[in-house]
Specification:
Subunit structure: Homotetramer.
Bound molecules: NADP nicotinamide-adenine-dinucleotide phosphate
InterPro entries: DapB_C (IPR022663), DapB_N (IPR000846), DapB_N_CS (IPR022664), DHDPR_bac (IPR023940), NAD(P)-bd_dom_sf (IPR036291)
Catalytic activity: (S)-2,3,4,5-tetrahydrodipicolinate + NAD(+) + H2O = (2S,4S)-4-hydroxy-2,3,4,5-tetrahydrodipicolinate + NADH + H(+); (S)-2,3,4,5-tetrahydrodipicolinate + NADP(+) + H2O = (2S,4S)-4-hydroxy-2,3,4,5-tetrahydrodipicolinate + NADPH + H(+)
Pathway: Amino-acid biosynthesis; L-lysine biosynthesis via DAP pathway; (S)-tetrahydrodipicolinate from L-aspartate: step 4/4
Number of helices: 8
Strand content: 15-25%
Organism: Thermoleptolyngbya sichuanensis A183
CATH architecture of the largest domain: 3-Layer(aba) Sandwich
Strand order of the largest sheet: 3-2-1-4-5-6-12
Oligomer: single chain
CATH topology of the largest domain: Rossmann fold
Largest sheet: 7 strands, parallel
């Protein structure tokens, strides 16, 4: 017997990531799009497939999250909501999805630690899977794994993340997550070598509790890029990942839509489900 397709709602369906996700779902045999959410009144009622550029899908864009989640929760199969919206609304979106028994796959970055903990509690109590994925790119996971390896041998490390200038949060969720992964063994990085003075505040970037510096660059023309630079006397070890097309995120997004159905709690990071 063939498995019924997974019903999926896309929140932020008209955005850059949302449109790419709509196309990827439309091309996936084991998924069916059951809802598309956005805010812009000019887009409401339009066929989301036409807006995404993959032809009509007979799913209108709506600005009614509660109604869309309520309908999705009535599907025969457990439904999933993919969220690529804005840091200001992602927490409420995820809570609403869990409340309706719809599994959230959260791509929107900018959730605070308190919000993440609260969502984890809420998902646990509801026994609902929830994935929070700061970066869906498999190449980024590989870069992070290489960085964790290198952190055993280098005491000095700085992260530079570079993104398009429409990005609302800084530093990027990926940069924060990379720093967290490096800090997991309890090592304190970047022991001071001189008394530093910042002549312009922020010149040395932000600093995590473990001493890792993160620098954020925002420019038109960039998509999403990150360098992790390790330094030691006489050598530099630089890891770099570049995203040149948002399609690169889609294998990770589709994988998470399938995986979240197997979970009963919140899981953070693509590396946990690869
Ligand atoms: N995890 C990853 O791998 C990954 C990769 C890339 C980006 N991201 C993150 O994903 C998020 C979206 O990125 P994007 O580049 O697709 O952004 P975008 O192009 O600006 O799209 C945002 C979408 O969310 C909707 N939206 C914006 N503000 C909203 C609000 N306050 N309430 C409800 N809907 C709202 C927009 O609808 P209207 O246009 O109708 O307002 C639009 O559909 C960002 O947080 C970004 O950092 C994550």
């Amino acid at each position: 017997m063939t498995q019924a397709p997974i019903p999926v709602v896309v929140n932020g369906a008209t955005g850059k990531m949302g449109r790419e996700t709509i196309k990827a779902i439309a091309a996936s045999k084991d998924m069916t799009l059951v809802g598309a959410l956005a805010r812009n009144p000019d887009r409401i009622g339009q066929d989301v497939g036409e807006v995404a550029g993959c032809g009509p899908l007979e799913v209108p864009i709506l600005n009614d999250m509660q109604g869309t989640l309520a309908l999705a929760s009535q599907e025969k199969q457990p439904a999933v909501m993919v969220d690529f919206t804005h840091p200001d609304v992602v927490y409420e979106n995820a809570r609403a999805a869990i409340a309706y028994g719809v599994r959230p796959v959260i791509g929107t970055t900018g959730l605070s630690v308190e919000q993440l903990n609260d969502l984890a509690d809420f998902a646990d109590k509801a026994s609902i899977g929830c994935l929070v994925i700061p970066n869906f790119s498999i190449g980024v996971v590989l870069m992070q794994q290489a960085a964790v390896q290198a952190s055993r041998y280098f005491d000095h490390v700085e992260i530079i993340e570079l993104h398009h200038n429409q990005k609302a949060d800084a530093p990027s969720g990926t940069a924060i997550q990379t720093a967290q992964l490096l800090a997991e063994f309890g090592k304190a990085f970047n022991p001071p070598t001189v008394d530093e003075t910042e002549k312009l505040p922020g010149a040395r970037g932000s600093q995590t509790e473990d001493g890792i510096r993160i620098h954020s660059v925002r420019l038109p023309g960039l998509i999403a890029h990150q360098e992790v630079i390790f330094g030691a006397p006489g050598q530099l070890y630089t890891l770099r990942h570049d995203t040149s097309d948002r399609a690169s995120y889609m294998p990770g997004v589709l994988l998470c839509i399938r995986k979240v159905l197997e979970l009963k709690s919140l899981v953070y990071g693509l590396e946990k489900v690869l």
